[in-house]
Amino acid sequence: MPGLAGTERKNIAPGLAVSIVLKQDQRTGKLTEGVVKDILTKSPHHPHGIKVRLETGEVGRVKEIHDEE
User: Fold this and answer.
1) Is 3 inside any structural domain?
2) Predicted TM-score (pTM) of this structure
C-alpha cells in the first residue's frame, strides 16, 4: 500500500477517497471504493483498518487511501 496507512486515524478525513472492505466481504477481501463521510473508529490506531462510513452509507475498514493529487 503506497502512501498513507489506513490503520492510522490521523491519515483519514471526511472527503478522502478510499477503498474499504465491507463486513460481508472480509472473507474475500473484496474492496469497495468511495468517499469518507464519517470516521467511526475512536482510537488513533486499529490493526485491521480504521472503520468509516462512506457517503453512500456503506461501513467498512479502510484498506487503501487514494491520492487525488
Assistant:
1) no
2) 0.89
